[in-house]
């Protein structure tokens, strides 16, 4: 009886368990459905995935920026080039930049003719070839040729990355998505610095060849990913009359119909002609009036004209973008990033390992602060962050320059060197949450559609030119004066902040059409008049 009772109880327990499991299935299915519909578990829209894939170009750029400074102070590399002078040191680092500036000026033409994604593939493939030549170089001339080729590729793809993301992003997410390449750049910086930190103890030329070999592999992988997964820009397709393909890409990217309409309405009407008849009033295309899609094409006299950036409705925005992108580098940020080991040596850290570690820590700090800056890019005003960021960077540069000029920084002792080290970190932090986020985004989003690719890439060209000057002359400035570079960069930053107070209208949260209206009728003369009135009010007070 006992065994039979136990068996009966066991069967009953199994029946109850099975019934309970059957009752729990609807609840489990409901839970899984809820998880799928919540933002945490839902598959991201295609435009976010496309923007992140595109932003990997910033990762490649960041790695190169992170490795070139540490590599040039490695013992094996200095033996390879024969203990370079400060001028030669600057030339080795900066030789990538002038080719990047030149190719950047033509990158818009390539992107307009072949498409944004193809332009990125071509540029990153050339970049990979240059990095491979650097890794395999047998003399210094071959190394510099590799950097020149790398620069050509960098100029071709980097500005196009920003244009592509700007063209596929809904207005409310445009800021965060367009700043994603900057976030990936900081990850590349961390990767580059710590790659060199890991290879510095290799007792052969492989200590500096390996970082470039890895860089070439990353670049060719990036080109392959873009070629396979990144669709053409639907706005580019629409401007070429390929509206059916554009509609398919919009669907693939998962852009909502309302956002799609806003984005397409932002195309400058002065650059658009329709191949459909107009309505009786002549104000709208007939197909648009009855709710059907229209086929839009550019007039042949306007299409792909580089000189359109100087047209009356575009030139003010073009000049402002060129100025901002140029002065972004004259803030000294790449002087800090390229020559971080030199700056830390000057402040009192005396070994490659310690300077590389300090450089790597600075890259981690930059990465950490770039995350919230990217997330909240659409909540922070472009203008206010540019002005306040400029004033903050000016203060840190002037403080470091003042400490060196006053003889307060001593190697191995005193608080002055630690203040300088903290200021280097603080300068990088302020830059990353302000100018790094606002300026590249602003330079791209203020342009009319028909000139966006060309204007953005030419603006990046001015960025490369000033970057070249900073990279070339910073070692000589540091060798001849411990404080001159800091006062120079601080003065340029202060000047830029003042100019932005006058000439830079706010664009946060505005559609590209609203941005057009904000710039309508603006001119440098108007800005100077406003500055004069502001100065008069200040003097009266």
From TrEMBL:
- For this entry, the protein name equals General substrate transporter
Q: Give the transmembrane region(s).
A: 46-68, 88-108, 120-145, 212-230, 318-344, 356-377, 384-406, 418-437, 458-478, 484-504
Family matches, as SUPFAM superfamilies? MFS general substrate transporter
- Which family is annotated? Belongs to the major facilitator superfamily. Sugar transporter (TC 2.A.1.1) family.
Location comes to: Membrane
What PANTHER family does the record tag this protein with? PLASTIDIC GLUCOSE TRANSPORTER 4 (PTHR48022:SF2)
Q: Does the keyword Transport apply?
A: yes
Boundaries of every Major facilitator superfamily (MFS) profile domain copy: 50-508
**Record key words, sorted:** Membrane, Transmembrane, Transmembrane helix, Transport
* Membrane topology qualifier: Multi-pass membrane protein
Which GO molecular function terms does the record list? carbohydrate:proton symporter activity
Q: Which GO terms describe its cellular component?
A: membrane
Please tell me whether the keyword Transmembrane is annotated for this protein.
yes
